[in-house]
Design a protein that fits this description.
Helix content is about 30%, strand content about 20%. The protein is α/β, with parallel strands linked by helices. Among the domains are: about 170 residues, 3-Layer(aba) Sandwich (Rossmann fold); about 70 residues, no CATH class. The strands form 4 sheets. Strands 1-14-13-17-15-16 form a 6-stranded mixed beta sheet. It has a 4-stranded antiparallel beta sheet with strand order 2-8-7-4, with no helix packed on it. Strands 11-10-9-12 form a 4-stranded parallel beta sheet, with helices on both faces. β15 and β16 form a beta hairpin.
């Protein structure tokens, strides 16, 4: 069975808590706070003011540049404020707060359940619609999708890869989308393929989801260009470079992008959002979120309006009893939440509650030069060395050792027998190196 060539680990997938929970629509809250920076790139610019009445799907912030994305209201009601509010880590970010009054949608959204399979738009019109509807990567990276579909001059896409791996432990949102909305997912994939001018679509799924594989294979029988690719269970198989290597055997070069080897990768949730945007004229204002953890009475997969407080989701599924840490996302690449009242955003794939005894850090030892972090690194880096160089402030040497290639998957920390916070140090070093790279690029202009 296919997989990527180097590194990787095998954590318990812990998906049994929520995998059998069908997608459930979460009740609309009384108030939502919608951040204007829900994507990589420039924050959106608010185009509403306090006192304005808005509808579901109405634009409330326009894109702040090419690498940016518009924001749409997820509710109907009255704008309470356009101000700075605290995000999940407690940092103040520009947001629009709306008091909910009913659930009135803009008329242009097609709310019928009929599957629209024939999309009579040109590739350019598809990309423009995706941009207009505010679609971003929903696997966590939140890169504006229209930018990813705009192939640079001199490059050519040869295949589309749908990332249906969901290798992050605990999360099952993509899995439920595959099982329940697989027909829409496939149409979304075909729309994406048309946008980039390719006639080959691979959907990579790990073999711990045999029912999803079987279901998609049955649906894909109607589409000759679609191939379902079962993959060996191995973290971080959902990383773009690892998935491309597993599916195609091609290696994205250091510092390169997927398009350098002819591939464009999109997440399951993104493909679904693209279908809804292009076929139904529906902006991205809600998404499926896994709320899970061993302490919860009822872990669930919920269809949630953007801007809903995470605390409301937690309370709906059983509350905070016995919880030591809340994580936005999964345990490997997610971020700890210091403010549980922060809102769900376009990139919120999950809310994970860790019990107190599992959330405490182990006492750090000393590096014993066992090289387990090197063996586990899927990018072929030396995490122990990158950690030490960061602590010593040797950023030029860090760049020479390819720290910019780190995908921040956490395999190094997971595998360290001395419980060293390797990824924490690597993230610090990478951030400084990337800052220096950007400054050099700006100075050349």
């Amino acid at each position: 069975m296919k997989t990527f060539p180097i590194g990787g680990i095998h954590p318990s997938d812990c998906k049994e808590y929520s995998k059998d929970s069908a997608i459930e629509r979460f009740p609309i809250p009384e108030i939502v706070t919608i951040p204007l920076a829900q994507h990589i790139g420039a924050p959106a610019v608010a185009c509403v003011a306090k006192g304005d009445r808005v509808l579901v799907g109405q634009v409330i912030a326009t894109a702040g540049g090419f690498v940016s994305s518009p924001i749409h209201s997820s509710v109907s009601g009255v704008v309470k404020s356009v101000d700075m509010t605290a995000d999940a880590q407690g940092n103040l970010k520009p947001s629009v707060t709306i008091g909910v009054e009913g659930d009135e949608w803009v008329e242009s959204i097609d709310r019928s359940k009929e599957i629209a399979k024939n999309i009579n738009l040109t590739p350019q019109e598809i990309v423009a619609k995706i941009s207009e509807m505010g679609i971003v990567g929903m696997g966590g990276a939140t890169f504006p999708t229209h930018v990813k579909l705009s192939i640079p001059a001199g490059k050519k896409a040869e295949c589309l890869i749908i990332n249906a791996v969901e290798c992050e432990p605990y999360l099952t949102a993509d899995y439920r989308v595959m099982l329940e909305l697989g027909d829409r997912l496939l149409v979304g994939a075909r729309i994406l393929a048309k946008a980039i001018g390719v006639d080959k679509i691979y959907i990579g799924v790990e073999n711990n989801k045999p029912d999803a594989i079987a279901h998609l294979e049955k649906l894909a029988g109607a589409y000759l260009e679609v191939e379902i690719v079962p993959l060996k269970m191995r973290y971080p198989q959902g990383g773009e470079k690892q998935l491309i290597a597993a599916v195609t055997g091609r290696e994205v070069p250091s510092g390169g992008l997927p398009i350098d080897v002819g591939a464009v990768v999109q997440n399951v949730g993104t493909a679904l959002a693209v279908y809804e945007a292009v076929a139904k004229n529906k902006p991205l204002f809600e998404r499926v979120v896994t709320v899970t953890g061993s302490t919860l009475k009822e872990p669930k997969n919920l269809l949630v309006r953007i801007g809903t407080p995470m605390s409301a989701l937690i309370e709906y599924c059983g509350g905070m009893e016995g919880v030591g840490k809340v994580i936005a996302g999964g345990p490997m690449m997610g971020r700890a939440v210091s403010n549980v009242d922060a809102p769900v955003t376009k990139g919120t794939s999950g809310v994970l509650l860790m019990p107190t005894e599992e959330s405490l850090r182990q006492k750090e030892g000393v590096c014993i030069r066992c090289a387990k972090c090197v063996e586990a690194c899927p990018m072929g880096l030396e995490p122990y060395l990158l950690s030490k160089l960061t602590q010593n402030g040797d950023f030029e040497e860090l760049e020479r050792h390819y720290i910019a290639d780190c995908i921040e998957c956490g395999c190094c920390t997971f595998s360290c027998p001395s419980y060293l916070p390797l990824l924490d140090w690597v993230r610090i070093g990478k951030a400084e190196v990337m800052k220096r790279i950007r400054e050099r690029a700006a100075a050349k202009k």
